[in-house]
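Go through this chain for my students:
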Amino acid sequence: MCELPSRARSAVTNHKDLLPGLDGRSATARRFRDLVNAFVADMGGLDRCSEVRLGLVRRLAATTVQAEMLEARMVNGETIDIATLCTLASTTVRLSQRLGLERRARNVTPSVGQYLAARTAPGIGDAPGMDAEGTE
C-alpha cells in the first residue's frame, strides 16, 4: 500500500488536530486534548499507537469528558439522567479494558552501541592530563 504525503492527508491523520472542526479553546476541548495526551503517554507515546488505538483513545476521552460534565451537573444539584451516566461509565470501563489499564513505560535505555560510543567519546568532565580513570 502506498502512503500519501503528509500534505495530502487530513490534519487528524497527521496528528495536528484531534477531531475535525474542533476549535480547541473551550474548557471541554482542552480537557479532551489533555485526556488524549495523557492516555497516549500512558501507552508509551504516539509512536506506539496504531490508528485504531488512537480512535479508541479519542472515544475514551470523549466519554470521560461527557461523564465528568454530567457528574459536575449532579454535584451542583441539577437533575441528570442516571442511565446516561451509567452508560458512559460502562463505556469508559469497556474502552479502558480494551486499551489496557496499565501504564507502559517507554524504553529509554541506550543500545550497546550508544553506550559504548558515549563511553569512548570525550566527556565534559575530561581535563587535560587526566587518563580515563580520572587520575594524572
In short: The chain has a mean pLDDT of 81. The CA atoms of residues 3 and 9 lie 10 Å apart. The radius of gyration is 23 Å.
